[in-house]
Design brief:
7 strands; 14% helix; mainly beta; 7-stranded antiparallel sheet
Length: 164
């Protein structure tokens, strides 16, 4: 029995650039995972502020093809992909904020796709901070509240602990 044709997409990196932000920038992340059993009015998620070390922009090409097998694993050039029957679909940029996570002891890339993690009840925003770091508590208060609300909204009703 022959496998049906399926539309497959593959992505190839064409360019990469990294630069430091010209203005102090942070990622504010709220984790509501610890607050599932306390969703009373005014409950807040736990917010963490990560300094942005650099901004990374990746330019990618997307190719599509109707295939019966998985796309090639080896990196083919643009010309090789076209010769093999792949169609150039589009080119796009993806910009990520590179942050240092001291818990994991590594640098992580945070981008719009990472903004919301429903499984872990996390939500984050990139914030430009053109003020001294000592003013963060006051100046970021509204952001803390906003990201906490979104993180708390990711908790599904069946995950809420019911107390007797």
């Amino acid at each position: 029995m022959m496998r049906a044709l399926e539309s497959q997409s593959i992505y190839r990196v064409v360019a990469l650039s990294t630069t430091t932000p010209s203005i102090r920038t942070v990622v504010v992340e709220a984790n509501a995972g610890w607050y599932r059993d306390d969703l009373s009015e005014g409950a807040k998620g736990d917010c963490t502020v990560y300094p942005v070390l650099a901004l990374r922009t990746v330019v990618k090409n997307m190719y599509t093809k109707q295939v019966r097998q998985l796309p090639p694993r080896e990196p083919l050039t643009h010309e090789e992909l076209l010769k093999d029957g792949w169609t150039f679909a589009l080119q796009f940029e993806q910009t990520s904020a590179l942050i240092y996570d001291p818990e994991k002891c590594c640098i992580l890339a945070y981008d719009d796709e990472d903004r919301s993690n429903q499984y872990n009840h996390r939500y984050a925003e990139v914030v430009v901070c053109p003020w001294p770091a000592k003013a963060d508590e006051q100046r970021l208060a509204q952001v803390y509240e906003q990201v906490s609300k979104v993180a708390l909204s990711l908790i599904q009703p069946d995950e809420i602990a019911v107390s007797d």
